[in-house]
Amino acid sequence: MKKLSFKTSEHRVLFTADLHFSHGKDFILKPRGYASLQEAMDHTRKTLYDTLKPDDVLFNLGDAVVGAGENSLQYATEITNLPCRHQYFIFGNHNAGMQQIYDTELQRLGLAADDVELYPLTLPNGRFTFLGHYAEIYVNRRPVVLAHYPIASWNHLSKGGWMLHGHCHRNLKDDPSLHRLDVGWDWKKRPVAWDEIEREMAPRKTKAVDHHSAESEFFTT
Q: What's the CA angle centered on 98, arms 180 and 190, to 5 degrees?
């Protein structure tokens, strides 16, 4: 497919991951400062609706709903209808509800089969697209690799490319010089905008991690 490319002068571009709707385990709630699952759900909902604007583009990097049981589809549907211009979704390792919505849309298109996947897949609401498990996009001409899981050596690493992920809940023992960043809910407990990511990345200078060279002069702002 054609690479997704965005200019922040046209749309605000935000990123999040690991919302963990309905996940009431202490190892999720306590680091986030929530005293109960209800508090977590209320704050997450309110923050999403307060933060997102009608012209925003949101990239959601997985683990949206966890442990919701019979409410999984309800919560997943709520997420697919967040109030933004468009939301792009990357699957994680917890796909409750989201997988059901994806499978239902494949069935509606007559493509349901155990060995069939189709990406990108946009829902009938026209504002939510499944991107699969991995995507490469451009923001202000910057190449960006997206996945739920962190990648050690990513495409365009030597050309100024950045890697954004979730999954680790800000606990990854990472080299702070790398242009790789966990944008999950545990960072700021809200979606983070591209300009915030730029400020976080500014002091970093990616080093060579394998036979690929370190960042070149290929990319210029």
A: 45
* Residue written as token pair 């949206």: 64
Q: What is the DSSP letter of 17?
A: -
- Token digits for 176? 């702070």
* Angular region, 52: left φ>0, alpha ψ -120 to 50, beta rest: beta
User: Which residue is associated with the tokens 């933060």?
Assistant: 51
> Which string of DSSP letters, residue by residue, matches 146-195?
EESS--SS-TTGGGT-EEEE-SSTT-----TTSSEEE-SHHHHSS-EEHH
pLDDT band at residue 115 under the 50/70/90 scheme: confident
pLDDT surpassing 60 at residue 4: yes
Over 80: is that where the pLDDT of 34 sits?
Answer: yes
Statement: residue 218 has pLDDT above 50: no
Residues 6+ apart with CB under 8 A from 167: 17, 18, 62, 63, 92, 93, 148, 149, 150, 182, 184
**Residue in the block written with tokens 């508090």:** 39
CA distances to 14, 85, 139, 193, 205 from 53, in Å: 11, 8, 18, 12, 32
CA distances in angstroms from 22 to 136, 174, 193, listed in the order given: 30, 28, 25
CA dist 183 and 185 (Å) reads 7
For 17, how many CA atoms within 13 A lie in the half-sphere containing its CB? 25
- Give the pTM: 0.93
**Domains and their CATH numbers in the chain:** 8-132+180-194 (3.60.21)
Q: What average pLDDT does this structure show over 153-171?
A: 93
